[in-house]
Amino acid sequence: MIRTIVVDPHAPSHLAFKEVDAPQPKPWEALVQVKAVSLNRGEVSDAKNQEISSRPGWDLAGIVIEPAENGAGPQKGARVVGLLPMGAWSEQVAAPVSLLAEIPDKLTFTMAATLPVAGLTALYALRKGGMLLGKRIFITGSSGGVGLFAHQLAVQSGAYVVGTASTEEKAELVREVGSDEVIIGYSAISSASKFGPYDLIIDSVGGNTLAALLPQLAPQGICVAVGFSSSNTAMIDMKNMVTSGGRTLYSFFLGEELTRQSAADDLSLLARLVTDERLIPRIQVEAPWTEIDTVARNLMERKFTGKAVLHLD
What we know:
Blueprint: E1 2-7, E2 15-20, E3 29-39, H1 41-47, E4 59-66, E5 79-83, E6 92-96, E7 100-102, H2 109-113, H3 115-127, E8 136-139, H4 145-156, E9 160-165, H5 168-176, E10 181-184, E11 198-203, H6 207-213, E12 217-225, H7 238-244, E13 248-251, H8 254-257, H9 263-275, E14 283-288, H10 292-300, E15 307-311
Parallel strand pairs: 8-9, 8-11, 9-10, 11-12, 12-13, 14-15
Antiparallel strand pairs: 1-2, 3-4, 3-6, 3-15, 4-5, 5-7
Helix pairs in contact: 3-4, 3-9
């Protein structure tokens, strides 16, 4: 038996511990002893609507204790980072080797656990803009996990980057990761136009923010919608979109992206960047996984920025 975190509607954050049977890997899966996991707002929010005893969790880092039967992927004893569609918040997981990457010895499990969902989302969203050297990029949700990774990767690509923050304190954090300009307050999003037009917009806010940003796209520009933290609906000025021509609104879902790109290769890339100190995860909270309830509630109440990592003993 192993311990895992499950959905429990009676818990304050809808998350609780439960003992379950140890996983039995399929031939293409490796058995991983999990050492650290990170939290994302999406999975914590989704837990409130899932069936009782469902097993949430996407990001993980740990050690392979049983390699895949088909011989592919990391071997026994390898230190790895990976992700699952669900169930990563467990002492042990059976993970497809296509979603696992070995990490350098210098990279801690804590750092590695921040990379899968936030890092891959930032990387893949930026790739929608093609070659970024000299281009103008606007990023909302800049002080969150995806935003902070996206800023660092965009700056390294030679782009001119404009970010957002809700307070001056958070704005300073965004400047520290290389943003050229920071717009403070989502209500002032229209003022972003003085730094545009933008070749690429990465938006995680949705609602009125998304609607206000679309007219700020340059000809042939693309807006990648990666979330909708403020509202899941937006009133779009279709006349502006149609008569301007050439602008694209791209709906981004990481699960769909992973059907066309190699998570293992790209996780290896992100891990190397962190090891070389070219990419720095901003970890705001570290705690034992027994504190999942408190950390999850604080995450949803936006009491911290950056990433939260939980350690498994």
